[in-house]
Amino acid sequence: MHSFTKNFAKGIIRSNPTFILLLGLCPTLAVSTSLDNAVGMTAAFTFVLIASNFIIALLRNMIPDRVRIPVFIVIIATLVTIVDLMLQGFVPALSKSLGMYIPLIVVNCIILGRAEAFASKNGISDSIADALGIGAGFGLAILLISFIRELLGTGELALFGHHLFSIPGFSDNPVAIFMLPMGAFFVIGTLLALFRWMGVSKGE
Amino acid sequence: MSNLIAIFFGMALVNNMVLAKFLGLCPFFGVSKKLSSAVSMGIAVLLVMLVASAVTWPLYHYLLIPYGAAFMRTVIFILVIASLVQIIEMTIKRTNLTLYNALGIYLPLITTNCAVLGITFINIDQAYSFIESLVAALGAGAGFTLVLIIMSGIRERLELADSPKAFRGTPIAFITAMLLGLSFLAFKGMI
Amino acid sequence: MTKKKNEFFPVIFLTLIVLISVVALVLTNGITKDKIATVKRDAVSEMLATLFPKMDDYTYDEASELYTPLKNGEPLGHAFMAYPKGYGGTIDILIGLEPDASLRGIRIIAQQETPGLGSKIVDQSFLGQFKGLAPTDVRLSRDGGKVDAITGATISSSAVINGVREAILSKLNAINNGGTN
Fold first, then answer.
1. pTM exceeding the 0.80 threshold for the entire prediction
2. Is A112 in Cβ contact with B79 (below 8 Å)?
3. Which tens digits make up the pLDDT trace of B121-143?
4. A93 exposed, middle or buried (CB, 10 Å; 0-12, 13-18, 19+)?
């Protein structure tokens, strides 16, 4: 059990995929324009990661080394397609706003990276813990960025149709640039610098 | 013809893969430190994008759609890309060893480059014809390479500049990307 | 003997994995296919209802791709889709005509334009301009028409305007050449 919590905690801070490992940035920046998107993307991503880590850890002793990358890719691509189809059918609004970034989860370096670096070499429960931790780390990062971008970019926050919060006087003239790609770059650059200044990141 | 030109410049500048569509970020930040590696990566990506588009388009329109298997596109496309990268890597290794050494580990990394898979999806979503898809891939690759080169030029000089300690390295690279993106916004009026 | 088996095993294993995933995907597709089609139809009928609030039913003619909203069996007008290429992708537009073929209004069903700029084509301030226009008036004001583009989103605006005009002109031919009800 101790190794479970250890692997889980590692994914959140010390090996945070977004801020420390700098992986999987494409969906993080693209999708972080609203809290709804962030939550949806995290759910989809974490599901694929957990399932992928589980399956690969389960089969790790059977997968021949020479074809391991194609095998990983097929497994991940299948899982992603399943998630994509399920979303289109049952949560169409989310599917529309996340768009092609759902199928792009298949080339998200995080998932392939974890399969290669961890799940192919560790037990099932450790791999699941790792997936949960990395998923949580990813989720925290994307939620943080979305929070900032949505708040500053539109002046208000909303979650699944429930209006949460508006900055009085600000929501009429928000800083729209945060909703554009360059706003995303700015937010993550500043956050990275902030974290480094706080001493949380590992050396470059 | 003007349509093709619009697609090319649209993909390269206005809807730049990296700055507007957030695709290809991993190599963008990982490889853009040196000019020479940036150029190599850019060309390699351009090549793969072109060939991948050329192969996936007919596969989708003549195989997947007629058999009602459009949902297989993610799996099929990524397998095509992975195989292509393998083949290209082996071909380069056998024909031009210097090029192979120059590209190094960047070649296999192209498989996970979201920009490559992304352009194959865009070709379908935008209902491009075969020629239009090739032009779009060319434009996307060119735009990607362009941004990579600019970025590496800036970063090489940034190394020598006196940035605040917390910002050094990656954070300042992101801020640079933002400024680059801002300047590319100017292209919106072009088409 | 074992050496031969080891040589083929990787390929066999990979093929097996591929087969399993194909099965899984075909199954998933089977489950979701109808749901996805329904979702697409619902989106359209929802939008149809916003154009024709009195509607209680509608019919769809596959040949002419024409929707006919009905109330108590009586047609309220006609509606059809247009799919012009916008700035960020295809724009799905639902166009509604009054029984006398004048423009009732348009609704944007799907778009991928730039958020905050081109995406404003969904705002009433832009869409409301189309109501009651004759096809020839469906042009940018600067081109002699009666529709103002959205500031900073000329391409998205033009795409909608031109797409609507061309769709109306081609559909009016279809309606006039033999009614569909």
1. no
2. no
3. 888 887 788 888 899 899 999 98
4. middle
